[in-house]
TrEMBL record:
It comes from Flavobacterium zubiriense. The keyword RNA-binding applies. Residues 77-87, 109-119 have a biased composition (Basic and acidic residues). Transmembrane segments: none annotated. Residues 70-119 are annotated as: Disordered. This is RNA-binding protein. SUPFAM superfamilies: RNA-binding domain, RBD. Keywords: RNA-binding. The lineage of its organism: Bacteria, Pseudomonadati, Bacteroidota, Flavobacteriia, Flavobacteriales.
Length: 119
């Protein structure tokens, strides 16, 4: 089972997180998500546990637990459907569909509509 762990202290290490979950059973992997530019933790991560019953017990007992002074959020991670993933180039123009050249009346300051060439 893939488990989401949120509201993590920024100082927590993957080894510390692994240790917390290994108290409930085997842990396949631990990944704390970090900012790709600064390398700093984003305050959440994922833990993969092979036995669902152990994973559920860890979720039940660790959700809301205090770790280094912060109440963490622990729940089953549900993969997002492919169509809902955010993309940097999807809707990056904020709904502006005028095109890339300013659209509208941008030639020579003639704003009387329709009469753009002066003929």
């Amino acid at each position: 089972m893939n488990i989401f762990v949120g509201s993590l202290p920024f100082s927590i290490e993957e080894a510390d997180l692994r240790e917390s979950f290994e108290a409930y059973g085997a842990v396949d992997s631990v990944k704390i998500i970090t900012d790709k530019f600064t390398g700093r933790s984003k305050g959440f991560g994922f833990v993969e546990m092979p036995v669902d019953a152990e994973a559920q017990k860890a979720i039940d007992e660790l959700n809301g637990a205090t770790v280094q002074g912060r109440a963490i959020v622990v729940n089953k991670s549900e993969p997002k459907p492919e169509g809902e993933r955010r993309s940097f180039n999807n809707n990056s123009r904020g709904g502006d569909s005028r095109g890339g050249y300013g659209g509208g009346n941008s030639r020579g300051g003639n704003d009387r509509g329709g009469n753009r060439g002066g003929y």
